[in-house]
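User: structure tokens for this one?
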Amino acid sequence: MALYDKFSRLAKEREQFQISGLNPFGTCIDEIYSATQGRIGTHKIVLAGTNNYLGLTFDTGAIAAGQAALSTQGTGTTGSRMANGSYGSHLTLEKELAEFFDRPTAIVFSTGYTANLGVISTLAVPGTVVLIDADSHASIYDACALGGAEIIRFRHNDAKDLERRMIRLGERARDALIIVEGIYSMLGDVAPLVEIANIKRRLGGYLLVDEAHSFGVLGAKGRGLSESLGVEKDVDIIVGTFSKSLASIGGFAVGSKDMDVLRYSSRPYIFTASPSPSSIASVRTSLKHITEHPELRDKLWHNAHRLYNGLAALGYELGPNISPVVPVMIGSKEDGLKYWRDLIENGVYVNLVLPPAAPAGITLLRCSVNAAHSDEEIDAILQAFAKLKK
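Assistant:
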């Protein structure tokens, strides 16, 4: 067998998408005009398929800070945090993140994926039991596999199933690592953190919450689902990303002072080049913006309700609750592809999500709103979906 022969089926499936029209895999957005507007080919589009929840990708302050860092610190660190890749700005951002979350320690990583990989793979070593939600992100699964821990999946958002599995572990439950997400990226639903925190208090274990899609979105201060439900004291580690609400690239983890040991034991942290100074500078500005402008979250949730309720009124089957992630359930892959292309023809870009990326074998048109969307843009998205119905 040749090196790539095992991927022949996958390659043929992708070829069919390419032959029949605009390809949803690796779509090129030819121009970006703002946080909400762009162009694909000849079509000017409303961007309704980004994770730019607070609409800060074109924030003038963040852009200016990034440009200033480019001028004074150059384009990149060319080294890992352990070697020559920690600059003063990396350490300052870590201090600011720790203060934002009211935690003793914060560690900055190069991406959100690397943050999960760096934290979980180091803690989830052979002999450790990790209980993860079945719909967890690929980075969580990959991190557990890299660490070599015993992995136990519990049913998605099913606290009772988690409790049953913890009880079966007996004394081993006291040292188990429980991993869930804040907002789940495909269906926009949230973890039952109150129930999970209660299980942890009774049966033991350590709780890690990936707040990638909920950071900046939920909570009075934007700290995520843990804050919004009042269970932050029960959460041992929070992991997040800079590539969504903070509108840049990178990742982070916050936790107790003991977490500092990961700097000397986490291979993804030790052997990955650190984020560029310009990325760090823009993140610091956006973090301050989130702190000083809670009205961004109000606008975001206004837009989420407007889109969700509008799509429901059109008769679409949606996710279980209102959130900035609004999934539209489509019957088949073929219908999903057709609708996705038709939406672009009508000036709207969303994400086409096919199995196995979509849970339970369904096909999704995944919409996401941000705080920069105007009411008129939300209505334009709804009008495009209305045309699909006809």
